């Protein structure tokens, strides 16, 4: 089947369904299928705990894509049977659940994780067992695994456009970098500093608070007193809500001292209340506001699936959705659902996703994506004010000098001599 037909037929079939999360395990009868009657896939996200507010939506998008594909005949003439596990917002639990899916359930692929901490926790399971993991979240790069397909943005797809735009378009040159205290914000800050200096700016501070920290008064005061003219935020999770609210509570305005974020998405805006983010900025390849028929139909199907007419879509959710289609195409191409066959067949796979055209780079199993910048409005949606004309190549080691002509992570593996 041609890719465009695969997409169109799956979406059309799904449009006629009354979709809900439990239906995939009950109405379709998949829970009763024996392993040999279906192609099994693990779905591993936090359904409980502090990160569930975000990760539940990633699980929903994954299961929605599976149900759409099943409505169009499944893969290899068989339905996809998801085995759903709860990472419980805890890296140790993630490791245990990944081991269960790979060793006991013997699934050939798992879709999962939101934070880098959970990805790092499961990575040894997949590399030791030579299994396959699809990771949908934008992340810090600095990883080159042949057992992971990365479908979220890497730093050059969020920052290489963003920092020059902040300096040249907003006219802001003195950066206060703030983040949550773990690997993703710290690695993103490393890329930010390089780009800030390359573009004639300076960073006046690089500060961190623990993930989930809710008392932002002292940090916001430090920002006010720093002399900066822009805040580069790599703050993650619930802390985003507390940070933005305190920012406004202390009388700071985005027109004079804007927050330019790498994490704040539609879901965090909805959690904090749109009034706390109006006028701030975020860089992502996907926003719900993308004005295309494909994206509008996707948003409508997702809202129907979760039975919430006001549900929002966001970058990690959208990647969770389209990566299942890329996987399904790879299974069809391979003619079998083994991890080794799928990982070879997924190289070069393309898809017309809600964010635009995406391709898995054969060299590093990361995804070509289109950088965009949006400004948040009173309706909780971003107005896209800058975007690249086409997708760009993913460079997970851009902070260390990697270019498309000088890859550190290639099909042969990581060339550590270049680090």
Description:
The chain has 419 residues and is an alpha/beta fold. The chain has two domains: 3-153 and 290-370, Rossmann fold, CATH 3.40.50; 156-289 and 373-394, 3-Layer(aba) Sandwich (Rossmann fold). The protein is 37% helix and 18% strand. The chain is built from 13 helices and 17 strands. The strands form four sheets. It has a seven-stranded mixed β-sheet with strand order 7-6-8-9-10-14-15, with helices on one face. Helix 12 packs across helix 13. The longest helix has 20 residues, at 52-71. The radius of gyration is 21 Å and the shape is globular. Residues 1-29 have low confidence and may be disordered.
Summary of the model, kept short:
Helix content is 37%, strand content 18%. With 419 residues, the chain is of the alpha/beta class. It has two domains: 3-153 and 290-370, Rossmann fold; 156-289 and 373-394, 3-Layer(aba) Sandwich (Rossmann fold), CATH 3.40.50.2300.
């Amino acid at each position: 089947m041609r890719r465009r037909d695969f997409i169109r037929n799956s979406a059309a079939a799904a449009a006629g369904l009354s979709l809900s999360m439990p239906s995939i395990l009950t109405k379709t009868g998949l829970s009763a299928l024996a392993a040999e009657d279906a192609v099994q896939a693990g779905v591993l996200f936090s359904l409980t705990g502090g990160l569930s507010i975000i990760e539940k939506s990633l699980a929903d998008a994954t299961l929605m894509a599976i149900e759409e594909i099943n409505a169009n005949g499944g893969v290899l003439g068989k339905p996809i049977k998801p085995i759903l596990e709860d990472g419980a917002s805890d890296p140790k639990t993630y490791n245990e659940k990944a081991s269960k899916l790979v060793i006991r359930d013997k699934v050939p692929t798992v879709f999962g994780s939101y934070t880098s901490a959970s990805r790092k926790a499961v990575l040894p399971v997949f590399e030791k067992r030579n299994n396959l993991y699809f990771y949908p979240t934008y992340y810090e790069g600095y990883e080159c695994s042949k057992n992971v397909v990365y479908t979220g943005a890497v730093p050059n797809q969020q920052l290489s456009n963003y920092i020059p735009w902040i300096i040249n378009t907003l006219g802001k040159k003195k950066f206060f970098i703030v983040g949550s205290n773990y690997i993703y914000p710290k690695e993103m800050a490393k890329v930010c500093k390089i780009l800030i200096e390359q573009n004639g700016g300076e960073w006046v501070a690089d500060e961190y608070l623990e993930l989930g920290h809710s008392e932002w008064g002292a940090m916001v005061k430090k920002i006010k007193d720093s002399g900066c003219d822009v805040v580069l935020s790599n703050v993650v999770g619930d802390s985003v809500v507390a940070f933005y609210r305190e920012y406004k509570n202390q009388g700071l305005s985005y027109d004079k001292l804007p927050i330019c974020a790498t994490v704040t998405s539609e879901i965090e805006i909805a959690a904090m209340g749109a009034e706390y983010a109006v006028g701030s900025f975020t860089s992502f390849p996907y926003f719900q506001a993308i004005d295309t028929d494909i994206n509008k139909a996707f948003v409508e199907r997702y809202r129907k699936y979760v039975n919430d007419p006001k549900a929002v879509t966001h970058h990690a959710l959208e990647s969770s959705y389209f990566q299942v289609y890329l996987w399904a195409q790879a299974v069809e191409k391979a003619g079998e659902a083994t991890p080794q066959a799928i990982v070879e067949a997924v190289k070069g796979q393309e898809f017309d996703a809600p964010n635009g055209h995406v391709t898995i780079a054969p060299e590093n199993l990361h995804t070509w994506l289109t950088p965009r910048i949006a400004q948040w409005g009173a309706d909780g949606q971003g107005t896209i004010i800058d975007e690249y004309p086409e997708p760009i190549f993913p460079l997970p080691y851009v902070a260390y000098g990697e270019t498309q002509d000088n890859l550190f992570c290639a099909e042969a593996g990581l060339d550590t001599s270049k680090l």
